[in-house]
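WARN no homologs supplied; continuing
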Amino acid sequence: IYAQGSATQPIVFTSSQAKGNRKPGDWGGLIICGKGTNNKGVLGQQIEGGPRTKHGGNDPKDNSGILSYVRVEFAGYPFQKDKEINGITFGSVGSGTQVDHIQVSYTNDDSYEWFGGNVNCRYLVAYNGWDDEFDTDNGFSGNVQFALSVRDPRIADTSQSNGFESDNDADGSLTTPFTSAVFSNVTFIGPKGRDGFENTPDYINGGSVFPQNGSALGKFQSAMQIRRSSHLACFNSVAVGYPIGIIIDAEKGATQVYAQEGKLKLQNIFLAGMDITGSDANKRYVDDLYDAANKTEIDANKESFSSTYFKAQKGNKVYAESADLKLEGYKNLAKGSIAIMPSTDSPMLKAADFTDSMLSSWFTKVDYIGAFAQGDNWLDGWTEFDPQNAEY
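OK structure emitted
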């Protein structure tokens, strides 16, 4: 696909319904399948979500085209339990593909999901999605820089919604290539990081736009859930207002072992306004030392492995309140301003660190944590934060 828009004329994939009647799941979503590598051990893995399309090969530089200045709205569909179509699904997409300036809004599953491949992506927005924001699986090893996630406090999936959800594969097996994507300069605004919803109409829960397709609402969980032997790395990022900051989940696979060995890296990350810093298990909202594989508590008086690990890593900080980050609003977001921009005295400014070898190439070296700098707002012009009422 060659979808090359511009800041003044973005390409929009959206609902066919009239404004006021659009809802998540109005159509399937974008599915891009390439001939890059994955860790299923076969050339031709069937894409998740129902289509018979297969993906995979042995060409890490495979070219699936261009997605640039593109919006995807009201997409996603729960074809089967745990086999959903996302806003955008990348299947073994290679590094020859150009992906930048993408906004996925009100999707009925994950905003973005990568199954294998190593495509590199810049300037991604995930807005008011249903399930996870950035889901990485089956050996995805690309780079992602400058990404924004904003959640509606009323929309979460029955499976528990996260910012990151990262698996090596569904079983946590130690197959190569490992999921080893590298993210930098991500801003997560969770459900507790948004105000102004107390007196607004209930857009989703029983409202006129609730999708009639078997979707079910659930709870928010964590800014980052890394599990099932993933080697995910994240640097120079910030997360605000989730029930849990980070879950390094050892129910399946060797994720905690890889963290201790430095094969999973989380550095220069600020957490603010979390109920708890970490948990050691899926759907467990307690910061204690816990054995997820055997579902037993190890020590109720000790912090979780996830908390202890996070606090010990280079440059990581935990702030009690969201206000401690000194963020300012971005006026063009729907329903008023949402605080995503660092003010002149924010601790996020001049706090970045790009000395790790994982960031030595491809990444743009900036001096700030999170997706935005003072006076440098890459959202302007092409994004839309009220797609329900947009004229198309």
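The two ends are 22 Å apart (CA to CA).
OK
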